[in-house]
Amino acid sequence: MPRSTPSKLLIAFSSLLLAHACYSAHEHSLLSTTSPDAPDVTLPLDITLETLISLSLLLVGIVSSGWELKPISLRSYAGGVESGRISVEGRKGGLFSALEERGGFLDVRKQRKEFTEWVKTQ
Amino acid sequence: MSLTSLLNRFQSVSAHPTPSESLALSQLAPSILNLSITDTPEQWALYESLLLSTLRTGDDTSARLILQRLSDRFGNDNARIMALQGVYDECTATNQAQLEEVLKNYTDVLKDDPTNIPVAKRRITLLHHLSKKTEAIQALTTLVDLTPTDAESWAQLSQYYFELSMYPQAIFCLEEVLLILPNAYNIHARLGEINFVAAESLSGASKEAVEKLEASLRWYLRAVELCDGYLRGYYGVKLVTGKLLESKFSAAHRTIPEEKVNKLNNVATVQLHDIVTGSEKGKKGFTGYDSAEVAAAKELLEATS
């Protein structure tokens, strides 16, 4: 899928930020185990904030990266099928065309007659 | 060609193919019959479509073979196979007496099992084919009593009533279809068409005719509301608003203000114009429209501009 440049940059930047936050947290945990004086050290606020911000930015970047969303309203989906914007594999006509073709009531004998007449004109 | 691509080819053609389409499909018979039988649902669906195509073009030898393979697999007493066997008998009957015989067979089958829906539908179609229209309608009303949720039967009943110009009954049947499938926008458009024809059949600009035209306009508007860029719907909106704006209808009978009708007419003109130009240039997103429908829309636009 095509991604727009601003969202690409945003994704790159926030991924970097997230990686940095992870690295910081890892380093911090190593640091706390080496100092016996402070047994219950919690993660510093700046690392928590960095993680949260980078995650939100990453989400915004992915969502806004310009992919085409599939229609969820019947109006646009049905319209797409009618106009040929959306192609449904192996199907002709609209979503409810079966109601007007009515396969159970097909008068094949009549169609056969029409075909014979068509052949004569060829 | 693979099974799925063959099946797609059959499904991309409507149940009412043009003679040349029928011929092309029917000519696929040898290559399909030579494929090894894999006993997949796709293969049997393909066989069923091919059977109808070969019957349309009169290739009875292939049809016989297909039917034989289908009944070997599913048995002769399968309701669907019985109906297909019936189609074969109808098509190969050479005179009226043989057709009556087929009809009698259907009646006998239904006497044993009145719930055999496919055969019941065949019997109704054959009655209609034999110009026994009232009997066909009678049988079909019995069938919709039996299966009131079968939209196809209601739609067919509406068609039969329409052919006899019994418009209120035809409208009622389609309203039943809408109770089952409320989103069926083509049925909304069809209701618009029937109301329009009913209005046309009334002479002059009576109160009733105006009521029918306005009902027609409302059905068409609902159709385009349910389906964006619906050519048939916009065509109807344009046609009916144009009719309502005629001087003989400008009497006090109308409930929709003239200004609104005018606006709707303009909207429909713009939409139709977009579709016609887009479709003629073969623009992306306009390739799905039927060329005959586009030509009709173009004609309407030219006639009213």
UniProtKB/TrEMBL annotation, chain A:
One of its GO terms (cellular component) is EMC complex. It holds the Pfam family MMgT. Residues 1-24 form the signal peptide. The keyword Transmembrane helix applies. Keywords: Membrane, Signal, Transmembrane, Transmembrane helix. InterPro entries: EMC_subunit (IPR053279), MMgT (IPR018937). It is found in: Endomembrane system. The keyword Signal applies. It comes from the Eukaryota. It is a multi-pass membrane protein. Belongs to the membrane magnesium transporter (TC 1.A.67) family. This is Magnesium transporter. It comes from Arthrobotrys musiformis.
Automatic annotation (TrEMBL), chain B:
Keywords: Endoplasmic reticulum, Membrane, Repeat, TPR repeat. It comes from the Eukaryota. Pfam families: TPR_EMC2. InterPro entries: EMC2-like, TPR-like_helical_dom_sf, TPR_EMC2, TPR_rpt. Its main location: endoplasmic reticulum. Residues 101-194 form the EMC2 TPR-like domain. TPR repeats lie at residues 151-184. It is found in: Endoplasmic reticulum membrane. GO terms for cellular component: EMC complex. It is a peripheral membrane protein. Component of the ER membrane protein complex (EMC). Part of the endoplasmic reticulum membrane protein complex (EMC) that enables the energy-independent insertion into endoplasmic reticulum membranes of newly synthesized membrane proteins. Belongs to the EMC2 family. This is ER membrane protein complex subunit 2. It comes from Arthrobotrys musiformis. The lineage of its organism: Eukaryota, Fungi, Dikarya, Ascomycota, Pezizomycotina.
